[in-house]
Amino acid sequence: MIRCARINFVSEFIFFLNRWETGSSRKKCERGVTLVELMTVMVILGVSIGMFYSVWMSNWRTFDHHNAIADLWHDANQISQQMSMDGRVAGKITVALDQKSVDFENALGAIYVNYQMTSTGDFIITRGAAATTITDRIDYANSRFIQQGSSLQAELRLVDEQVIGGEVVIEPRMEVFPRN
Q: Which tens digits make up the pLDDT trace of 142-157?
């Protein structure tokens, strides 16, 4: 009895497949795509693309922000290293009245290096006749050199305004002591 039911089910399934292929009922493959199905696919694609774009832009902003911070700290570290090396050799450090430039003098009193911040945002180191721009991202109004006894304090503010989400700011402070 179970065997007859099984054969009957298989024969019904084969009959159904034959009807499907011969076209006695509407064939799904000839029917095509309805407008509702097409619109559903378009909505799903639109939502998926929107979500992907949102995540991608968020990641890009984060990358750009962290990259800008790394670049600014690199510039600050270069300034700090140069000032530390020159401070070891300096006999005297003199800050200008506007607090935007500083001279390092050797033991004989001769100026051997000058550090200067310009109103265009450049931080320039001048040794003899050779001038080197370390960075062009100094915030001139909020950066200064301060003389504390024989030491030099540099309060810098570096700004990168070319970041997608707005500007990025770092404010390193450093102190240099002359060796002599």
A: 999 999 888 899 999 9
CB proximity list for 9: less than 8 A, separation 6 or greater: none
163: Cα within 13 Å, side-chain hemisphere = 22
pLDDT tens per residue, range 76-98 = 999 999 999 988 888 889 999 99
**What is the distance of C-alpha 41 from the center of its chain?**
36
Give strand pairing partners of 126. Answer: 114, 131
The residue assigned the tokens 């399934």 is 13
Q: Is the pLDDT of residue 166 over 90?
A: no
Measured CA to CA, the distance from residue 161 to residue 71 in angstroms comes to 12
In this structure, the strands spanning 144-148 and 130-135 are: unpaired
Q: Nearest 5°: phi and psi at 112? A: -110, -15
Residue 164 near residue 64, CB atoms below 8 Å: yes
CA distance 60 to 79: 29
Task: Find out whether 39 and 47 touch, Cβ atoms under 8 Å.
Answer: no
